[in-house]
Design a protein that fits this description.
about 230 residues; mainly beta; 1 helix; about 40% strand
Length: about 230
C-alpha cells in the first residue's frame, strides 16, 4: 500500500471515530492496517480503497477488526494522475464482525458507516456499545457514537447499567408515625402548669387542761330563830 493511501485511510479513520478528551489522550503512534487482500481502484471522480480478509487497524488508543473496510474519496487532482495528489474523504464502511476498541469503550456490530460532516459513526446490524468505565451497555436497532463526546444515541435502545442498592423496606422495622403539622394561623395553647400539692396541715397542739379553781366559801350570818 502506498504512503499516500495510508495517509488517506488514516485521515478517514480520524474523521470517523470519536475523539478522546484531553484527559484521555495517549501518545500518538502510527496507524497500521493489515489485511489478506488489498485493492485500490479509481475513476475520474473518485477513488475506492478496499481491504478484505482479517482486517486489523491499529492506531493511537484504537483498534478495529472486521472482515472488510472500504474507503471512498473524491479525486481533486488531475484526471490523468494514477494517484491523485489531493483527495477528499467521502465515506468509510466497515462490515463483517466489526469490533472497535477505543480507550474504555468497546463497540461491536455487523456494519459501521461514517459520512463526512456527520461527526458520528453509525452502527447497525445488532450493534452493542459497552462503556467499561461506567459499566453501561447499550443495544438497539442502530447506535451512533458522537465525535468528541462520550454520548450514545440510537433507536429502540436497551440500556443495562450497574446494580443499585435495594430501595425496598424492612417489614419488621417499625416506622414512627409522622408528626401532625401545625395548621397555619392556629394559636398554640399555653403549656399547662403542673398542679401544686397543698401542704399537709400541721397537727393540732395539745391544749393543756384548765386549772380548776376552788370556789370561795361564803359564810352567811346565822338566822335568828323566833324573830319575826
Amino acid at each position: 500500500m502506498s504512503h499516500r493511501l495510508a495517509r488517506l485511510l488514516c485521515f478517514a479513520l480520524c474523521a470517523a471515530l470519536p475523539t478522546l478528551s484531553a484527559k484521555e489522550e495517549a501518545t500518538p503512534v502510527p496507524t497500521e492496517i493489515t489485511s489478506k487482500h488489498f485493492e485500490s481502484r479509481s475513476t475520474d471522480t473518485e477513488m475506492t480503497t478496499l481491504f478484505t480478509g482479517d482486517v486489523v487497524v491499529t492506531g493511537t488508543n484504537l483498534r478495529i477488526t472486521c472482515d472488510r473496510i472500504e474507503v471512498v474519496s473524491m479525486r481533486l487532482g488531475e484526471k490523468t494522475d494514477v494517484v491523485a495528489e489531493k483527495n477528499r474523504f467521502k465515506s468509510l464502511v466497515a462490515t463483517g464482525s466489526v469490533k472497535i476498541i477505543q480507550a474504555d469503550r468497546e463497540a461491536t456490530c455487523g456494519r459501521a458507516v461514517v459520512l463526512p460532516g456527520d461527526d458520528k459513526i453509525t452502527l447497525t446490524e445488532t450493534p452493542v456499545v459497552i462503556d467499561h468505565g461506567a459499566n453501561i451497555t447499550w443495544t438497539g436497532d442502530s447506535l451512533m457514537l458522537l465525535r468528541g463526546e462520550r454520548r450514545v444515541l440510537g433507536n429502540n435502545v436497551r440500556l443495562v447499567g450497574p446494580p443499585v442498592r435495594d430501595l425496598g423496606f424492612d417489614p419488621d422495622k417499625k416506622v414512627p408515625a409522622p408528626a401532625t403539622p401545625a395548621q397555619p394561623g392556629a394559636t398554640q395553647a399555653a403549656p399547662t402548669a403542673p398542679a401544686q400539692t397543698a401542704p399537709a396541715p400541721e397537727p393540732a397542739k395539745p391544749v393543756p387542761a384548765a386549772t380548776q379553781d376552788t370556789a370561795p366559801t361564803i359564810k352567811l350570818p346565822p338566822s335568828r330563830q323566833g324573830q319575826k
